[in-house]
Amino acid sequence: MSSLEQTLSIIKPDAVERNLENKIKSFFTEKNLKILKSKKIKISKDEASEFYKVHQTKPFYDALCTYLSSGPIIVMILEGENAVLKNRELMGATDPSKAEEGTLRKMYGISIDKNSVHGSDSVENAKTEIGFFFK
Ligand code: ADP
Ligand code: MG
User: Fold this and answer.
1) Per-residue pLDDT tens listing for the chain (135 residues)
2) Would you say the pTM of this structure is higher than 0.90?
3) Pocket lined around ligand 1, Cβ cut-off 6 Å
4) Cα dist. 55→5, 7, 10, 62, 108 in Å?
5) Do residues 105 and 14 touch, judged by C-beta distance below 8 A?
6) What is the domain extent for residue 64?
7) Number of domains forming the structure of the chain
8) Residue 19: helix, strand or coil by DSSP?
9) Helix pair 21-30, 83-91: axis angle to 10 deg
10) Which atom of ligand 1 is nearest to the CA of 93?
């Protein structure tokens, strides 16, 4: 079954810093995920804490929020057939050392915390996350 979906993608500070924006965007478009909207922003730690609040009980929560607010990020709405799962597949595993060959995190991720990209994990969360960044 296929369905046209939208998902939220973020190019995280480690990847923006290494000028990977264009490479990552080309990767998505070559794989038939259309970039409907894109903006470069820097968020506050409070905003990062709100965005990642599902992780508030995790031991890495504070470091994660500090990190996401540490430098510019690119937030994007991707659209395509099964875009949510497709983006997760293109990203690869959370830990780059466990990600499959050819995935973004395998190619560009530095470590589990500096793993270059974020992607919504469900259609429901995609709607919430898109709404968070694109009012
Ligand atoms: P994903 O980004 O693959 O959806 P999670 O939602 O589980 O992964 O975690 C959100 C983010 O928190 C990850 O992308 C990563 O940056 C960070 N993170 C996850 N697990 C750890 C960990 N064990 N140690 C440090 N950071 C982590
Ligand atoms: Mg997640």
Assistant:
1) 789 999 999 999 999 999 999 999 999 999 999 999 999 999 999 999 999 999 999 999 999 999 999 999 999 999 999 999 999 999 999 999 999 999 999 999 999 999 999 999 999 999 999 999 998
2) yes
3) 55, 60, 64, 94, 112-113, 115, 118, 121
4) 24, 19, 17, 9, 24
5) no
6) 4-133
7) 1
8) coil
9) 130
10) 3
Letter for the amino acid at 53? K
CATH number at residue 79: 3.30.70.141
Cβ–Cβ under 8 Å, residues 76 and 70: no
CA of 30 to the centre of ligand 2 (A): 24
Q: How far is residue 128 from each of residues 17, 53, 114, measured CA to CA in Å? A: 27, 12, 23
- Distance CA(68)–CA(91), nearest Å, equals 17
